[in-house]
Give the backbone structure.
Amino acid sequence: MDVINTLPGEKLGSTLVSFDVTVADTAEDRGENRGGGNRPLPCEARAAADAADYSAEANRAEIVSTENGTVLSGDLSQVDENDTVRVNVVTTRENFSSLAVRRISPIRDVTAFRLLGGQQVRPQSVTDCVVFTATVQDFDPGVGQIEIARRETNGEFTRLGLIEFNVHPLYRGMLSFGAVWTGLNDPMFGTVSTPGGTLISRGEVGSHRLLYAVLLTPFIWGRRDMEKEPALLSDLFERGRSLEALSLFRHFNPSVGLVVNDPLDNALAGISLDLFDGVLITGGVHVGRVTVIDPQSGLTEGSVFDGPEEDLPTARRWRTSAFWSVSVDLRAAVQLIQGVLSPPAGRR
C-alpha cells in the first residue's frame, strides 16, 4: 500500500521550498524480493519514472537522485539561470527529517546585462525508502551545484552528496561588429582646372560607401538561452525543426549602431535577423552629417570657382539613406582580428 504524506514547506537559505513523502509499505516495495544485483529499488524506479525531465515552457527541470548525489532520472543539461530545479531524493525514513537540499553555487545576479552529466546508477541499500522533494533556483551561469546534506542536532550540515551541472546564461541582446553598405556618401570637394576655367569637383565618386560599425541588438521578445534558441538556420537544419514550429518573430529584433571611426557624425537604426549563430543581417536607416556645397553660396558641383581651393564654401548637413549590414558577435570579431594580426609562430 502506498501512503503519500505532504509536509509543510520549509526554507533553508533560499533553496528549500517544499517537500513531499512517498512511503513504500508492501514487501515488494520494501525491496525484500529484490533478488540481488544493483537493480534500483522499486520506489526508486517508480519515482524515476514519474519525474519530468525538463520543461522549457515552465522553466523547470526535475530529477530523481540518491542521497549520495547519483542521478537516477532527469535531465539537467538544458538548465539556464531562470530555471527552477526540483530534486527528488530517495532516502530512508530515519534520514528524512534531517535531510536538506541546498543550492551552494553562486546566486545569479538578476540585474546582470548579458549580451550573448549523467552518472552511473548506484542505488542505496535500504529496505524502506521514502522520497524527499525540494525545489532550488537562482543559479548563476556556469557550474551549478546542489548539495544533499544531513542536518545535525547542532544545526550544522554534513554533506551526503553533490550534484553538479552546467547552467546556461540568458542574454538580453547582442553586441556585434561588421561592415555597413550605405548610400550616404561624405564627399571631399576640391577644384579641377579645365579649358573653361577652374571648376568645383567632387573628390569621392560612387553612389555607396563601405563603413564599419558596432551594433547593439536587444532581444525585445525576452532573454534568450542560445543553446535552446539558436539562430534561425541553426534551428532549421541542425535541429531539424520545421518553420511551423519556430517562433520566427523572435529572430527579428531592432538594432542601433555607431560607425567606429566617426561615431559623432553617424548613427544607424534598423531591424536585424540572426540568421546564423553569431551573425546578424541588418537593414535600416543611416543618419549622418556630411559635407555639402554651402547652399547660401549659390554654387554647386561643376560651378566655376576662381578662389583658392581652401576657400570653397562648404557646410556640414545631416542627411539620411538606407543601409545593409552583416555583423558578427563582437567576441568572435575580436578573436578573428587578433588571429589575423598575430604573427605566425616563429616569426615574432
Notes: The chain has four helices and 18 strands. The chain has two domains: 2-167, 173-341.
